[in-house]
Amino acid sequence: MDSSDAPGADEWPLPPSWMWSCQECIELYKAMKHAPEVVDAAREEGEPGVDYDPLDTVVSTQFRLARHIATHHESDVPAIDPSCERCTTDESRRMPPVLIMEHRARHVFAPPSIAGLL
């Protein structure tokens, strides 16, 4: 069993209070939460046959928020989650430090099923 199989694996956590005291965190979090709506609206208003790739918007907004947290709120990034397969693999430990911190930052704002992917 990995973190994506655990109860609540798809539930978005309530962001911690320190995120709400940072204007950039607020803006990046709101952009991330609204990204699926933005993609859907573009798809509905766009031309048939055009690919409105949600990865361009949805995943990239998560990357931006995680990078911000990893580089501006390093002391608030959680420790390795022993229930997260991504946190505990040797492959993950060989990544550049900023990417390790970005992954751990995702545990602050993303459900385990998503945090474990990136």
Low-confidence residue ranges: none
The biggest beta sheet, please?
Answer: none
Helix content: 55-70%
Instruction: State the distance separating the first and last CA atoms.
Output: 18 Å
Average pLDDT taken over every residue? 84
Radius of gyration: 15 Å
Outline type: globular
Order of helices and strands: HHHHHHH
- Tally of extended strands? 0
Output the structural class: mainly alpha
What is the topology?
Blueprint (H helix, E strand, L loop, with lengths): L16 H4 L2 H23 L8 H19 L12 H4 L1 H4 L3 H13 L2 H4 L3
Features:
118 residues; mainly alpha
What's the short story on this structure?
With 118 residues, the protein is an all-alpha fold. The chain is built from 7 helices and no strands.
Describe the structure.
It is globular and about 45 Å long. The mean pLDDT is 84. 60% of the residues lie in helices and 0% in strands. The chain contains seven helices and no strands. Helix 2 (23-45) packs antiparallel against helix 3 (54-72) and helix 3 packs across helix 6. It has 118 residues and is mostly helical. The chain has helices at 17-20, 23-45, 54-72, 85-88, 90-93, 97-109, 112-115.
